[in-house]
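Dear support,

I submitted the protein below through the web form. The confirmation email said the job was done, but the results page showed an empty box. After a refresh the structure appeared. I'm attaching both so you can tell me whether what I see now is the final result or a partial one.
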Amino acid sequence: MPARLTGSPQRQSTSRRRFSAQQVIPAHLTPPPTSPLGLVGYSGPGPDLWLCSCHGGAGTSTLAALVPRSVNAGRYWPVPTSDGQAQVLLVARSHASGLCAAQAATHQWAAGALPNVRLLGLVVIADAPGKRPKPLNELLRLISGGVPKLWELPWIEALRLGIPPNQVRLPPAYLRLIRDLDHELTEEQNA
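What the results page shows now:
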């Protein structure tokens, strides 16, 4: 908050100046942070899990083919028009622009602009084979502090070559994601 000087500088010595803070814009009136994800309302029962792409090419359509009970929401936050709650998983690639898009989406969610959205976490899919550069690891570590859970998935060359996801031998990280989500969704339904 900007500080403003109270009193007249001519009448006060520098050592006697008092500062007071004045609210510029009340927090409840500030617009929510923007992200590359738009909002789309839906009515009626939705799927158990929405996969939201933080940017184009994130991999949500591939994950939707692998994760049971999920639907690709594209680059939108699904917002139920009724009192229900949408279970959402954000998806991004591990390159700089993908991580920045994920960061913007998590800021939008954390701002409270999506009260009927329950964010389960963020899935970051490797954008290339091999080790991720240190600056991207640091950015991902920063972003991971703002989401309930983070899953990091490795590169799968077979998917790049066009082999259907259901015909690919999945690395353990993918199987762990599927198991974790199934457990989370089952617990939510039983609650």
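Response: this is the final, complete result; the empty box was a page-load delay. The beta strands are 3-6, 18-21, 38-42, 49-53, 70-74, 76-80, 86-93, 117-125, 150-153.
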